[in-house]
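Hi support team,

I'm filing this because I wasn't sure whether my run with NAP finished correctly. The job status page said complete, but I'd like someone to confirm that the output block is well-formed before I use it downstream. Pasting the exact inputs I used:
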Amino acid sequence: MADVNRRWLLAARPQGMVKDSDFRLVTEPVPEPAPGEFLVSQTHLSFDPTQRGWISMDSYLPAVKIGDVVRAGGVGQVVKSNHPGFKVGQMVQGGFGWQDYMVTAGQTEFMPVTPLFPGVTPEQALGVFGITGLTAWFGLTDVGKPKAGDTVVVSGAAGATGSVVVQVAKALGCRVIGIAGGPEKCRWVVETAGADACIDYKNEAVPARLKELAPKGIDVVFENVGGEILEASMLNLALKARIVLCGGISGYNDEGPPTGIRTYMMLTIQRARMEGFIVLDYAPRYGEGVQGLSKLMAEGKLKTAEDVQHGFENIPATLRRLFEGKNFGKQLLKITDPPLPVV
Ligand SMILES: NC(=O)c1ccc[n+]([C@@H]2O[C@H](COP(=O)([O-])OP(=O)(O)OC[C@H]3O[C@@H](n4cnc5c(N)ncnc54)[C@H](OP(=O)(O)O)[C@@H]3O)[C@@H](O)[C@H]2O)c1
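And here is everything the job wrote out:
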């Protein structure tokens, strides 16, 4: 077990792509839990595009303050406990941030600390059964509401969220078209995730390919990317289409005023609806999502990919991977093995 607490603090608000110099690595003593608290030694960190927003500005959560530890979800092990609900050796997840250790009474800034379900790995807890898997589940089933036979288009289809959306939509009997960057990702989206087709937006003309692949129009768009990719889907909507506005990663590093959606009148013409959502609002229903996803996995209908980086010093570079399209599936970084026997 490390005898110091390494922490990455926010040093500057990023301009464009995040740089190492936007963060500052410090070393502090390991904190001691007070009565009613416990100490978590973090083993795995989750990387999420929304972190780029969290370190830039107030949004659905307040911006991380300059000098504070960078906000992030993670998995860790309870290594000291003065809390009756948490045992030493237990694996837990919560919002532990970019640091080795965290003392908590059970509620981190944006999520409660919860034990890992038996048999669930840290990679699964942060991926398919974590924020990204649940985003896919609730965004598709609750906001998109696809019916069997619908044509569903998923951008960011090889990513953590998109790859689960593809497979849930297939399990619901939809025809699924993925959009992803590069032939290798597209091959995975079709051959492993089971999409009917995948458009390589880096090498193909997306609007033309969507017209070919969805001649009767798109019923549900699950949007992770935004910008021109969203506009291309909007130009090919079916009547009464639903656009699930999950994210718009293509614009997260932009400076200056955001650009508009040039195709917005297609919502009127096609009597369509575009709706955003934030997965944290579904917290009271997470159990339902985990149950649905576990069932699909048990039936062999849900394959996952995790991209696990290593090295505490590589944490800022690992965040960049999401914006460089380097990640394949859920982006994680393993800090250490659990220091104690797992109970
Ligand atoms: N609403 C919510 O509650 C919620 C919750 C979680 C996530 N999200 C959103 O869901 C989306 C996916 O998140 P994730 O965690 O699953 O990440 P991810 O898809 O695993 O990783 C990000 C992917 O985005 C693609 N990308 C990056 N820059 C791009 C650009 N300029 N143009 C096109 N594609 C680009 C890359 O894939 P390619 O190589 O294919 O380009 C990259 O691998 C994000 O927009 C995120 O903000 C929303």
